[in-house]
Amino acid sequence: MTLRASEMKRLLADSSRMHEPNHAKWIAEAVNALRSTRDPRGAITLLKTIRSHNNRERERRSLDDVLSWIERRLRTEPTVEVGRLMLELGWLRRMSVTRTAARDPRDDGKPRRSNGHGHDRAHRRH
What we know:
Blueprint: H1 5-15, H2 21-37, H3 40-52, H4 57-76, H5 82-101
């Protein structure tokens, strides 16, 4: 099973909203839920149950983003195969991790700027 270029572009656009470390965590939980239930709606129910017991605002927002993505995906293609959904979530997680790594926590969440040599400007020796 593979993804077409247009599907990868859609996932890349979707991942632009998923740049927090918690996004990757909840996407991985969604994949695990799909793996164990083999039912997208069952996975959503499981994730919503987890959400109801989570009091951390940032984690809840990240989980809401992942739940919204899955629900939108099911509205677009209600009969999507579980394996297909897991594949897309796997790529979405990879893209999310990449976006998270590209952010500099010292810079209040703004993207890192590189000097082209693999070092941050702040770390360059004079």
